[in-house]
Design goal:
Length: 371
């Protein structure tokens, strides 16, 4: 099967990029022929090269910095995508991320190629700025009938699309994110004291590290340290806030890392303070390591984190609630250990890469059979 993946950004390696990279690696191993079309070049295209995944860099496909739609640039990107698809003549096109998903669905539909869109969290979900959400909602409705299927990574996103009348229910399928397993040596020991907290997320508005830092500012009396993995436009702002809250000596900003599994294995608690999400891979990676999690109750997070069993859920932007939940785990090593054990079981039962890959591949074959 010849399959083209299309996504917007090559300058970061986030959840969408890792999702596509791992799918392509598995497809190659199974004898299929994946090719990735992506805007620009960067760490993501470097990783694809290391995996020997064929890649085409698109000049005009770019993430919008402010207003979601740029007619001239988007028109050029649409033409560029169309030319690439004509040359490649794939059996199926799989689009990812809002901008690439919108343009890719139009280009593939024009050429009569079956196309799917994977929504890694809708761009009109709660927490997104109202103007951007309104524009993306209209854009999604305009192309909602084009894809053969829409894959949502959470039931939350599927229900949101139904409520917003974006895609017909019978055209959507939920396939929860999954991540590859790690050796037993990369399992965490949550009961160790003093606990190290960890958060893995890009420093941008969505991930809301300020709420996490303010939550920990309420816990000066507790023995903890925090490791923040990631980089991004809000990194300097995060360092400044940590200093102003008197946390500089307890918070380590270690940037983007390729040894995230090792970092998680050294920690005792995972934390994530997102404003919005689809289903964050970072939480699944923490579950894989056997870590309890404290995370904001947004998007599909509660489909991974079982409240009171594998971690705690707190309201968006509520630093006091997050601080109290973190306090409970910091003070109780036995609770951390039991929650972490249950988190690992939950990963094994529902969030492995093999499970996600099998369901995704079956969907590709079903779409091809229909076409």
């Amino acid at each position: 099967m010849k399959i083209v993946f299309l996504l917007t950004r090559a300058d970061v390696v986030g959840g969408v990029q890792v999702h596509v990279r791992d799918l392509c690696s598995a497809l190659l191993a199974d004898g299929h022929l994946p090719t990735v079309l992506v805007g620009g070049t960067g760490p993501f295209t470097d990783e694809l090269g290391n995996k020997r995944v064929p890649t085409i860099s698109l000049r005009h496909l770019r993430r919008p910095l402010r207003f979601p739609i740029r007619p001239v640039r988007d028109g050029l990107a649409l033409r560029e995508i169309g030319h690439a698809l004509r040359r490649l003549n794939p059996d199926i096109v799989s689009t990812h991320s809002a901008k690439a998903g919108w343009l890719g669905r139009i280009a593939a539909h024009r050429l009569g190629i079956p196309v799917l869109f994977t929504a890694h969290g809708w761009a009109f979900t709660q927490g997104v700025t109202p103007l951007a959400a309104a524009v993306y909602r209209v854009a999604e409705r305009a192309v909602g009938t084009l894809p053969a299927r829409v894959i949502t990574v959470s039931d939350f996103d599927r229900e949101l699309a139904i409520r917003q009348r974006v895609v017909a229910p019978d055209r959507m399928v939920t396939v929860h994110n999954g991540v590859c397993d790690v050796p037993d040596s990369l399992r965490a020991s949550p009961g160790v004291d003093p606990p190290e907290l960890i958060s893995v997320a890009r420093f941008e508005r969505q991930k809301d590290q300020p709420t996490l830092l303010r939550a920990l500012a309420h816990l000066h009396d507790q023995p903890w340290s925090l490791t923040l993995v990631g980089e991004g436009p809000k990194l300097a702002e995060g360092k400044k806030l940590a200093h102003s809250l008197g946390l500089s000596d307890r918070v380590a900003f270690i940037g983007a890392r390729y040894d995230v599994a090792e970092c998680l294995a050294r920690a005792q608690v995972f934390a994530l303070a997102s404003r919005w999400e689809g289903l964050p891979r970072s939480i699944i990676e923490a579950m894989r390591a056997g870590l309890p999690a404290v995370a904001t109750d947004v998007g599909g997070v509660r489909e991974a984190v079982s409240e009171g069993e594998t971690g705690y859920l707190t309201p968006r932007g509520d630093d006091r609630s997050m601080g109290e939940r973190l306090r409970q785990l910091i003070e109780d090593p036995a609770l951390r250990a039991s929650m972490g054990q249950r988190a690992r079981v939950r990963y094994e039962e529902g969030f492995t890469f093999a499970r996600m890959y099998e369901r995704t591949l079956a969907l590709y074959h079903a779409v091809l059979g229909e076409s």
